[in-house]
Amino acid sequence: MSQAEQRSHVIDPPPTSVPSESTFHPGRRSTGELVPSRYALRIGDIDVMVISDGVLPLPTKMLGHNVATEVRAAWLDEMFLPKDAFDWPLNAVVVRSGEQTILLDAGLGLDPDLQLPRAGQLVKRLEAADIDLASMTDVVLTHLHMDHIGGLLVEGVKERLRPDLRIHVAAAEVKFWEAPDFSRTNMPQGFPDALRTAATRFVSEYGSQLRLFDDAVEVAPGVVARRIGGHTPGHCVIRLVSGNEALTFAGDAVFPVGFDQPDWHNGFEHDPEEAARVRVRLLRELAASGELLVATHLPFPSVGRVAVMGDHFRWVPVFWDY
Ligand SMILES: [Zn+2]
User: Fold this and answer.
1) Residue 51: φ, ψ to 5°
2) How far apart are CA 238 and CA 217, in angstroms?
3) How far away, in angstroms, is 118 Cα from ligand 1 center?
4) Which CATH architecture has domain 3-317?
5) Residue 157 CA, ligand 1 centroid: distance in Å
6) Chain segment 228-237, per-residue pLDDT in tens
7) Alpha carbons 9 and 205: distance in angstroms, whole number
8) Checking phi first, is residue 145 left (phi over 0); if not, alpha (psi -120 to 50) or beta?
9) Which residues, chain by chain, have CB under 5 Å from ion ligand 1?
């Protein structure tokens, strides 16, 4: 959000359905999007680009369904966030290591039934970044929720991918979606069915390209996927290490509220207690190492570090490097 938009937000919040590219017209037609949607950095010899897939407006209850409404409202208030629904950022990452180009998660794709028109921008934004779908050698999926696989289900995308593309995902994740348990989740109506359908369709469309791993796999030099479970049983994180630098892409192991309130149960967690344990362990590791963290639903470009204060954590975003 630009400073101008932030200022106007205080006085008169703009309707959330207005696309950001139409909010500022200083007298001439713009050829591109007004908001930045990609952010590049290097981890040693590894090139990294965070790409925004857009935003997902979701009810605020999803942030912590095990706490009282007033407690959630107080946190939202402290964060200057609206109390009913706010936009979850949605980030994917492109990594180049050695001869390989690797996509970490694939965004939402298209699902008009769920009224999420501002997400699903990944393919368009890859094109804007001059990244050809056919250049991808590998995809790593943190898990099989729709907002992480849907970009590959958009019509016409599969045909543009290399036929020998490898898609790495934990074996436990694929197994889980054969009979997924939603009894501990707390999602808006329609989501469990949509998630189940998307995961099933993904496995059937890309089954022959899946490369399953149990605990960990080195996908490319310095690019290691490690299963940590929690959010879903086969959820993995991807760690990039080169020289003396490291970055962890944490997928849905941590959400914006997860630093202040690591024990809040996110509505999309299939085993919320385990998800909280996994989150705290990961945040402690990241705080100890001081390495960079990128996560799917942290504010774009979601590059930062973790500080720890007793039982609480603090998100420390990097200063953008221009
Ligand atoms: Zn997600």
Assistant:
1) -120, 130
2) 10
3) 15
4) 4-Layer Sandwich (3.60)
5) 21
6) 999 999 999 9
7) 43
8) beta
9) 147, 252
